[in-house]
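Contributing new records

If you add data, match the layout below exactly. Sequence lines come first and carry their own label; structure lines follow with theirs. Keep one chain per record. Anything else will be rejected by the validation script.
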Amino acid sequence: MAVTVLFLGPLRDLAGEPSRKVTAPLDWAGLLQAVGPEVAAQLGEERVNVACAGRVLGDKTALQAKDGDEVALLPPVSGG
């Protein structure tokens, strides 16, 4: 039983990998522990969003990922 955590944009650089498999089920506290302190610090920022199973969470701290889900960590997008 596993959840795939996807690191996007600069979060990929901090994590040192594009994705990571973690044990399911996965809640907010488990996510923070699984991603390491540098990524966890970024997740605490309001501008970083979390999507689970293709849906951006309005309250990322309510994360409840189950076996087979993908959790995407979405840094802010900039462009011009």
